[in-house]
Design goal:
Shape: elongated
InterPro entries: Alkaline_phosphatase_core_sf, BREX_PglZ, PglZ_2nd, PglZ_C, PglZ_N
Helix content: 40-55%
Largest sheet: 8 strands, mixed
Radius of gyration: 39 Å
Structural class: alpha/beta
Protein name: BREX-2 system phosphatase PglZ
Number of helices: 34
Organism: Mycolicibacterium sphagni
Low-confidence stretches: 758-790
Amino acid sequence: MTTVTATEPVIRARLKKAREKNYANGVLGLRAKATYDGSDFDYDGTPVTVAPCPSVLAIWEAIDGRDPNGWTVVLTSVDDDDLGDTVLAHLLDGRLITPDPWDALRSNFSATTIEPALYRTTNDRAIANGLLATLSADAYIPAPGGVLTRDHAMATLARDTLGIVKDVDVEIDTLAVLEWSRSSDVTERVTALNINGGPELSAAFYQWLAGRSGRLAAPVAALLPAGRISELVALGIVAGVFDGTESVALGKFLVRSGLSDLSPDSLQVWYQDTYGLVTNSLKSEQQQAVLSAAGTIISELGISEAATSSDLLPHGLEARLVSLSNAITAALPDPLPSEVDSRLVSEEALRDIENRWEHVQQHFLASTDRSAHAFGGAVRLARHLATGVAPTTGLAPLADRHLRTDSWVDSALVVARRGADQPVPAAALRALIDIALARRARHDRAFATALADAPTPSVQTIENVMRDTVIPIAKNSATLLLVIDALSVAAANDLVRSMQQHGWTEVSANNAKQRGVALAVLPTLTQRSRCSLLCGELREGTSDRERTGFLSLLRESGLEATGGVPDPIFHKKALDAVPSGAQLATDIRNAIADTDRQKLVAVVLNYVDDTLHHTDPGGTDWTLQTITHLAPLLAAAKNAGRTVVITSDHGHIIEYGTSAKVARANTYGQRAHGDLARVDPDREVVVRGPRVLTESQQVVLAVDETIRYEARNAGYHGGATPAEAIVPVVALVAGELFEGASRVVGTEPYWWHAGSLAATEIPPDVSTKKSRKPAQDSLGLFDDPAHSTTPASGLPGAVLRSKVFAEQMKRSSRIALREDQIQNLLQTLLATSAREITLAQAAAALGVETARAKGALMQAKPLLDVEGYEVLRVDRDVVRLDVEALKEQFGISE
């Protein structure tokens, strides 16, 4: 007969039965191996001494030496016949009791019966003993209905010993197993189960847990016995690189996973479940750890080529970027035609680029990858090059082109120039940037020529910004003027987008409904342009003169501060006087809050200009948090209900290691000089007139961005490029619009967003060798509605007049959109042959900022999507209209 091993849980269970028979102490004889690995303990306050007794003599010694007030537990395998009646008379019930670990489990779980599935094994007592040995005293939860089931026992083991979820109300399923497999102590817990629970319990538990793992049963069943369950997630990521076909790589993977075979569907299921965990449940650092572990497995197996198909691994992103790079390289004209303003990328090539870019963006790592981020700018440049540029002359049209198009090209160039890690993507970026720069250089030259030909320009000038824009706004609404030194129009594009995401709305104080710009004083240097801006007339001087001129202008305009308050203009010293624990200097905070006595407050921020000397403007994202003091200034303005006007004294260009110093005499900073005897007509321009603040009212300005006249910096200003000479004039409100204000919409060019295969802006007879066909007279996919000659459709009006639309409006009482906005949106969509527009175009049609366009479209959908039929569809940055569904759902026969 097999002799059992008595453990403390087994002994406790027998003592419990003795107590139920009203025994308070005594000698409990158990037929078991005369060995005991535990120590003496207390049972309900009564001391328990465990005595392994291999002989009758040892039993007598235990009886004679027992504590009469405690329990003595005798463990012996001596036959009853050898014990004799005298020994048995000292034992509880007068006999040796054969302990049953299942009785102990039944007792611990407060169960009356045990499900056969739990004990129907070859060595069932090993299962019971293993459970008793591994479960803690606090683990036992009464068995539901008094039946100890296999699920209840194993789930208790999973929670208590393995640490798979803690809450009894949380189901142990595939996700729970995946998350547990990533625990820092998972290997130690499995090892402890093997040692303490024994091989029989471990095998039974592995089988049970595999069954609870749903579609991952096979991998879990293979990895658990091998002690490699910690690799479950990493191997699942690797499983996604196989298409199910027999290959050497797949064979290596199966051997590594301990699997003899796994169907293609099972491989994909493993990957899908893992993908869900990684993308939805793990924190960023956890994701990186898992992907790194998967990458190590890829390297160990030597299957990097197979990994290029992965949606999660870096190998997959790198492959997609290479594919995109090849498409870009193939799309670019070689050689570059002389007409760089013609369409340089064909529609077909751009579609290919867009498709591959979409594939890149679908990769999990794309949103945080620096190389992918650079290609975000590159694809925008490709869209720009796929659009021809109409010939433009005159300073005002050229300044407007910079505002509407070229400043956005500059923004895209900044991003693209941040580069890629791998050689092929880096080469593609370089080629694309070079072509974009060739077109950009042509535009810079045209602007500089117009600047030289306009001594008294017809565009807004920086010395008139105060009188023409800022003061009129301040008379209608208390205003905070932020002069951000060296803020270019391109940098303002990024900054305004950031502000819109924090509740600010861009407005204009005229009917133009577009962002304003102004022309800097020449040369475009701080002491000339900023002084002229704040004084309201052409002047040159330091901050003291700026202050004097600004206060004089306030008195002249009737906006002078009253009541003995500090001067409402603040420079760097005042900004830096921030008390400990505060975010803003006290005088500045008080001035902004005092809207009754100080209608106009001006603050000068030098951060951008400082980056040109000390940091990297090309690697800077211009946001509220980037510019020192800006965020608390805007918060104070929002709290006070002030309108904010942002402008600058001049813009800037960025040094990319390509500039060369050119020797010139009588220099004005890095990009201007008075050496009229030495002028390079290909790279410089001579400008004369009253707005040239030099002694002779003439100056030579650099046009080519690769030349400078002094030591290398991170960036420069002073020259004649529009990036240096044109400054933004932006007005924003955080609440209701002030009187006379209108929203600024559609600031981005339509090629800025995906789906911008626009009709060319150039005459149809101008094309390039790389284009498959010249510009068409009819509008094509993703046309620019602004160029449409299609007559207005009567369909939008019919929709709005229909009974169905009236009912939709009643059901959607909280929708804030007006009927005219819906009509404009429908009309804009119907004006294109494909019934598709970009997000920027939709924003313009709805009269909202692009940053808020998706929110507005989500309000339009409940009005147009009748009974769940999708009439209006928004995919990323493309808006589509199903015209037939629109007619059918609104009962229109047109």
